[in-house]
Amino acid sequence: MICETIDTLKKSLNGILTPGVRDVEIADEGQLRATLVDDLIRTAVFASDEGTRAAARWLIRRTAAAAGISVASIQGLYEAMGRGDVSGFTVPAINIRAMTYDTAQAVFRAALADGVGAVIFEIARSEIDYTRQRPDEYTCAVLAAALKTGYRGPLFLQGDHFQVGAKRYAKDPEAEVKAVKDLIWEAIDAGFYNIDIDTSTLVDLSEPTVPEQQRLNYTLAAELTTMIRDLEPAGVTISVGGEIGEVGGKNSTVEELRAFMDGYRSVLEQSGTNLTGISKISVQTGTTHGGVPLADGSVARVKLDFETLERLSAVARTDYGLAGAVQHGASTLPNEAFDRFPATGTAEIHLATGFQNIVYDSPNFPADLRQKIYDYLKQEAASERKEGDTEEQFIYKTRKKGTGPFKRELWDLPQAVRLALGKELEAQFSLLFKKLSVGGTLAQVRKFVPAVDVPLKPPAVLV
Fold it and tell me: Are residue 166 and residue 93 in the same domain, yes or no?
């Protein structure tokens, strides 16, 4: 049920939740998980009245806090990885583009079954636009899923690829940097205490030396880091990531890593304050976002350079105290490849398209809705079709952009369909968690990640 007015929303809370000036008291957790949280998240996403949506979002965030779910920074765990206090696993960072509430529940079910705490929920700058999910909405969908499934403990939300676009920067540098800064501010307000800065698009390979090639990259990364430190809530050290090579470009080198880190640290030191720098570094080792579709729509096998990845992770930890290297574009790799990430000391991998593919390609996904989305893309995304693309290649590359325009239809799928898709997703999450050796990491997360309750001002209509 969607509560379309504040009065209807307040009535739905009777006997279950009691909102106060700052906190929410949970009177009936059984009813909260059984029905109310479903109504709250649907109201938070789809209510036509902005004030009612805002009230539902506040209720979800404060109810989660009352239940022992804390939006958190993974900084403490990554510092422990950098010191060598913990090792042997790779943290999965999961981008959810469609059916966010249902998909996040599948993640939590898989996590609860194996004691997983080291898992990140993220969304990229580009995804925020085409999936039509602003950070606050994404936060609430994930927190509501945690409440629904009974997950308790630190929960990591991350801004993925908060990217300075090279073309937009060339046209108007000030406006493009401001757009990224505005997004960072919005994300932190929403509880994203993990931010991946991506200024790697500005690496200029035409420059004669590697430090000169990386100069704009590390200078802007340091500027954005300084801003993040100014905005982070009291008691929270936001985990910041940097990037030295654009995904899909040439493979990264140790020389590039050193050039970036040395320049980045030098710029931070020149600020005259002892600022905490990045906790991890994203590199390029042979993948592309979404994989490379073949003429029949299948995905080409990628030869990922694990030796380079291992070397970069080792230098990042040993010489700079980082958690290690981060691998993007990994979700379309064959399942047998995932064991190798923990073995090579990879700190984190980013996973997105593979889960989208499970939903679209499932026999449980309604064929008529799939065709409706594809017909929409053939018309609305026609300009993105490249010369020589087969229809299958075009659909594969553009179908991510059907998740926003059809968000309501995807959320409104029959319960039986959502449950079936959820089971498929849960099975894949469980497999990946085992391959990445993150089972049992909830205890380590609780040891190294402090629970910080950041105050959130309630909407006036609720108190």
Answer: yes
> CA torsion 352→354→360→363, rounded to 10°?
-150
How many separate domains does the chain show? 3
Residues 385 and 430 in one domain: no
Q: Residue 20: give the domain boundaries.
A: 6-67
- Residue 304 belongs to some domain of the structure: yes
Residue 31, domain member (yes or no): yes
In a domain? residue 292: yes
pLDDT of residue 295: 52
- Give yes or no: residues 389 and 424 share one domain: no
Give yes or no: residues 307 and 367 share one domain. no
Q: Report pLDDT digits (tens) over 240-296.
A: 999 997 654 578 899 999 999 999 999 999 877 789 999 999 998 865 544 444 455
**How many CA atoms does the CB half-sphere of 77 hold within 13 Å?**
28
Same domain, 278 and 164: yes
CA 291 remoteness from chain centre:
18
User: Based on the domain organization, do 49 and 111 belong to the same domain?
Assistant: no
